[in-house]
Design a protein that fits this description.
Length: 278
């Protein structure tokens, strides 16, 4: 059995903690790293990098997600490969495909491709778990009214368990080097249909409330988000409303040889009583 640890950046996040758990289920050691995790790792503190990559052969990479993410990722990838890391699995996003003309948006992916390590890139759609684990949607779900700027557009929500399963396969198996896996769930759903399934699983009333773009922006600002983030979220919902995300992707099937999990499975398995209003 291979006992070389696998470094999991963002190891306490939605996908990272699932990657760590699934690695453990395979008998592999996950070195969980984050600013507050068992292994401290801070993208902006390069003094934390050496201990994190020591003795590691593969890294699950969730980038800094700030304005300097690509630059920091390029520096880290070079640093890691010089110290013997041979494999990088990078969590990107399918939304990049909506801005295919804008090369700057692909800078982080390029940093991984040009690292010199074997690489695999994951581009998932919206996570199912955003409804229960993300402060954008979870507080509305807990409150019983999910405020949305769109009621008709569809999205093929992907279960974070499937993202983690693909990542673990790419981190531990042969045959995934140089692959770009575009990940989606098995069907297209409106946000309202998702909320209805959540209400059914939770056994209580939860309803979608569709508002216009400006009302939605005010809703987010009122919850403490900056206005530029609210405008960005409206842009993302515009792509859904316009049908630009209304297609399925085959990444889960290509990587794992099976179909992705359905949203209904996620809704049924989630403890909705534990979802926070905060």
């Amino acid at each position: 059995m291979n006992d070389t640890p696998v470094l999991v950046l963002g190891g306490t996040g939605k996908t990272g903690r699932r990657v760590a758990r699934q690695l453990a289920e395979r008998g592999r050691t996950a070195r969980v790293a984050s600013r507050s995790g068992p292994q401290r790792f801070d993208w902006r503190d390069k003094e934390t990098w050496a201990a994190a990559v020591e003795g590691v052969e593969a890294v699950y990479v969730v980038d800094e997600q700030g304005p300097h993410a690509a630059e920091l990722l390029a520096d880290f990838a070079a640093f890691a490969t010089r110290r013997g890391v041979g494999r990088l699995v990078f969590l990107s996003a399918r939304t990049l495909e909506q801005w295919a003309h804008d090369e700057d948006r692909f800078a982080a992916e390029r940093a991984v491709r040009e690292s010199g390590a074997q690489w695999t890139i994951l581009r998932p759609t919206w996570f199912s778990q955003n409804f229960s684990e993300d402060r954008l949607l979870a507080p509305d779900v807990a409150a019983g009214e999910v405020i949305l700027p769109d009621g008709q557009g569809v999205e093929p929500f992907i279960d974070a368990e499937d993202i983690a399963a693909v990542a673990v396969a790419a981190l531990t198996e042969e045959g995934h080097a140089g692959e770009l896996y575009v990940l989606s769930g098995p069907r297209l759903m409106t946000f309202g249909e998702c909320v209805d399934l959540i209400a059914e699983a939770a056994g209580r009333k939860i309803r979608p409330v569709v508002v216009d773009r400006e009302e939605y922006a005010r809703h987010l600002v009122g919850r403490g988000y900056p206005r530029d983030f609210a405008d960005f979220m409206n842009e993302l919902f515009d792509t859904i409303r316009d049908g630009r995300t209304a297609y399925l992707s085959d990444g889960v099937r290509r990587a794992l040889g099976r179909e992705p999990r359905d949203f209904r499975e996620y809704a049924a398995e989630t403890d909705w009583s534990a979802v926070s209003k905060q």
